[in-house]
């Protein structure tokens, strides 16, 4: 809890301990109430349980293919935006590159930081307003770590922060779902049992967002979370990139880096260069 740093602080000294307790807890409750879905869900231990079976081999194959495609110089600097628990960052660092990973989730960054070293650092940052004193050769935003925001301006702000983090002619790789195919093949209801917890998952498309509701119980308590990802298509991304002086130089459709096809590709992988 951060106490006020202006003249209010002098007033607090005159308050009783009860009032200070009430004030701090009231502020905390307001913060919790106003948290967006990704702040609650990504910091929940259940998020990591549900997705613990993500394919690390597939992630490493993707990075290997990217390196073959991009041909970075030895010791090149990478920024991993929305790095989660750092699986891509850690593997990139093992390949000999200098990597900084940022994510809004304190829990994810705490875990990723256990793998840190002089050439691999992790920080809690919001992709909409971060600033980098050092610039990077490459910036990555992988595994649909975008499209979470209700406000359209937030998406452009995030792209602008990436632009500002890159060196001249730096490369940005954004890996997103192929929204058109995702909507067409949406699995409406699904159950997954992991670590003895039965996750009941429902999906639907509403107001241009793909919404996933996640319900389960654990130790006698009911939990309800959701994920909301905007169905951003290629034309939308072109607008974001053009507005932020990033020139799209390649479009790929899967982790084998085959060409993008709007109807059949599983992924929309955009490679753009800072102008």
Topology order in helix (H) and strand (E) letters: HHHHHEHEHEEHEHEEEEHEE
State the helicity in percent bands. Answer: 25-40%
> Radius of gyration in whole Å, from Cα?
20 Å
How many strands, what sense, and barrel or not for the largest sheet?
A: 7 strands, mixed
Strand content: 25-35%
Adjacency order of strands in the biggest sheet: 3-2-1-4-5-11-10
Low-confidence stretches: 1-34
Assembly annotation:
single chain
Shape: globular
Number of helices in the DSSP assignment: 10
Q: Report the end-to-end length measured between terminal Cα atoms.
A: 41 Å
Computed structural class: alpha/beta
Number of strands: 11
Q: What's the pLDDT, averaged over the residues? A: 87
Short structural description:
With 275 residues, the chain is an alpha/beta fold. The protein is 35% helix and 31% strand.
Please characterize this protein's 3D structure.
With 275 residues, the chain is an alpha/beta fold. The chain is built from 10 helices and 11 strands. It has helices spanning 8-12, 17-34, 37-42, 45-50, 56-70, 87-94, 106-112, 152-165, 179-184, 234-243, and strands spanning 77-81, 98-103, 120-124, 136-141, 166-177, 189-194, 197-206, 209-218, 221-230, 246-252, 267-274. The protein has a 7-stranded mixed sheet, with helices on both faces. A 4-stranded antiparallel sheet has the order 6-7-8-9. Helix 7 (106-112) links the parallel strand 2 and strand 3 (120-124). Helix 5 (56-70) crosses helix 6. The chain is globular and about 55 Å long. The protein starts with 7 loop residues before the first helix and ends with a strand. The model is unreliable at 1-34 (pLDDT under 50).
């Amino acid at each position: 809890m951060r106490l006020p740093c202006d003249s209010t602080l002098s007033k607090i000294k005159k308050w009783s301990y009860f009032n200070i307790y009430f004030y701090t807890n009231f502020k905390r409750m307001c913060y919790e109430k106003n948290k967006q879905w990704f702040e609650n869900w990504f910091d929940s231990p259940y998020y990591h349980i549900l997705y613990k079976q993500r394919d690390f081999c597939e992630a490493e194959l993707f990075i290997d293919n990217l390196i073959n495609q991009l041909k970075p110089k030895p010791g090149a600097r990478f920024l991993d935006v929305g790095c989660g628990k750092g699986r891509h960052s850690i593997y990139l660092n093992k390949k000999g590159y200098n990597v900084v990973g940022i994510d809004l989730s304190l829990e994810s960054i705490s875990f990723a930081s256990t793998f840190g070293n002089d050439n691999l650092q992790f920080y809690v940052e919001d992709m909409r307003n971060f600033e980098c004193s050092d610039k990077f050769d490459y910036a990555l935003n992988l595994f649909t770590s975008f499209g979470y925001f209700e406000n359209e301006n937030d998406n452009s702000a995030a792209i602008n922060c990436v632009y500002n983090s890159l060196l001249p002619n730096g490369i940005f790789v954004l890996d997103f779902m192929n929204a058109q195919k995702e909507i067409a093949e949406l699995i409406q209801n699904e159950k997954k049992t992991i670590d003895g917890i039965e996750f009941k998952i429902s999906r639907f498309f509403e107001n241009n967002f793909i919404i996933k509701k996640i319900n389960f119980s654990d130790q006698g308590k009911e939990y309800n979370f959701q994920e909301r990802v905007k169905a951003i298509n290629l034309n939308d991304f072109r607008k974001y990139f053009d507005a932020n002086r990033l020139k799209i130089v390649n479009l790929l459709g899967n982790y084998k880096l085959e060409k993008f096809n709007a109807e059949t590709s599983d992924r929309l992988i955009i490679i753009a260069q800072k102008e």
